Amino acid sequence: MATGPDGITYSTWKQVNKTNPSILLQILAPLVLLGYHPATLKGSNGVVLDKPAKPSYESPSSFRIIVLIRTFSKILGRIIAARLLTAAQLRGLLHPNQCGSLPGLSAYDACLTLTNNVKTLERTRLKVSSLFLDIKAGFDNVHNSTLTCILREGRVPRYLVS
Question: What pLDDT does 161 receive?
């Protein structure tokens, strides 16, 4: 992870945790317990990058802004996210087909679930349709050719199977 205004890298915090895990726990425990995110941890650095091959750079959409927050704040955010996920799972708040942002599941799992559901319904001679909203943002870490292969052929390419 890139560093924020404090300049402390993720690898530094990882080494601190490896050397003495209680340090991070002692610092983070009160923040988590009180549900408090100090203003000092909310500072960030922004970097504006040109998007390549834009005909004009007069529009704000021609730029990408990268915001670098303090690594310590990212660690705190991950802890809270993990706790929220656990609470949501224990209370049955997640749909059984939810794949995104869950550990051990990915867009490939979502594609396989969709394919399986479609084939199951087609076997009973039902007509099936799917609606995708914002698929680019939903699958932004998936190679387009891989996703297309999975959706069209309903199978996982050999190089994805471990």
Answer: 45
